[in-house]
Amino acid sequence: MPNIKIFSGRSHLDLSQKIADRLGLVLGKVVTKKFSNQETCVEIGESVRGEDVYIVQSGCGEINDGLMELLIMINACKIASARRVTAVIPCFPYARQDKKDKSRAPISAKLVANMLSTAGADRIITMHLHASQIQGFFDIPVDNLDAEPTVLKWVRENISEWKNCTIVSPDAGGAKRVTSIADQLNVDFALIHKEQKKANEGDCMVLVGDVNGRAAILVDDMADTCGTICLAADKLLSAGATRVYAVLTHGIFSGPAISRINTACFEAVVVTNTIPQEDNMKHCSKIQVIDISMILAEAIRRTHNGESVSYLFSHVPS
User: Fold this and answer.
1) pTM above 0.90, yes or no
2) DSSP letter string over 275-316?
3) What is the mean pLDDT of each run of 10 residues along the chain (318 residues)?
4) CA-based Rg of the chain, rounded to a whole angstrom?
5) How far is CA 14 from the centre of its chain?
6) Within 13 A of 181's CA, how many CA atoms are on the CB side?
7) Per DSSP, which regions of 49-172 are E strands?
């Protein structure tokens, strides 16, 4: 693959390395450091003139530092005469702040979109945005990839009773995604209606659908403090589910999340590696990880070669 360079920010070096290995490339040289006053300094260590540049940085860990690092790297490549700069953001930061849901609330996802465009990004590749309308915050192309094909593959290979299961959404907002997965597996779906009184606290859960005598698979785009999915798991078990699994695209797992998962009734909590999970797996044996580096690598390859990426919405690259 000529005229292509891949650089990695510090948020998820392991995923960046897997993407580069998959493409048969070496990660570009970049030095990131902080001055004593905590300003971020980025030095691109090789020529990018006329190159198709991809910068991998996920929205995890020190999110604000990671975002600033990404913006500086994009701008550094742009003013060094890169032909095109694409930001590969597996987990998009501030994605939950996507609407004005109360007076004087900021729409921070739109602000991040503006910052990326202003820095000089020509294209965005991301994975399962919290709200797909975030694509409309950009005036540049956005490829919103989906982990659904890998989720379907994992369910068929790892849950023996998958033909007699129910796919469950922990809230009404995920109903469309759940019905899509249920249709492809040819199984039933259910959803849990909840009234959320405080942020990160679910309350008044009502199950709509039947899980009695079946395995229940909770599917959501992300889990942060895990209060909602743990309460949902208890609700499903009390409704007669034989086993409860959770399948999530982004495992943020902040605050009491790991202790909640350890005490909850899950058989397994399955997440993709858009966010590093090594430390979480050491403290929780229930967490399993699906590798999505091949999806991002194939998206990069197809974008570089001017091919369609729509194939990735229904297939797992071999």
Assistant:
1) yes
2) S--HHHHHH-TTEEEE--HHHHHHHHHHHHHT---GGGGT--
3) 93 97 96 94 96 97 96 97 97 95 94 97 96 94 95 94 94 89 95 71 78 95 93 93 96 95 96 96 96 97 96 90
4) 20
5) 15
6) 32
7) 52-56, 84-89, 123-127, 142-145, 165-169
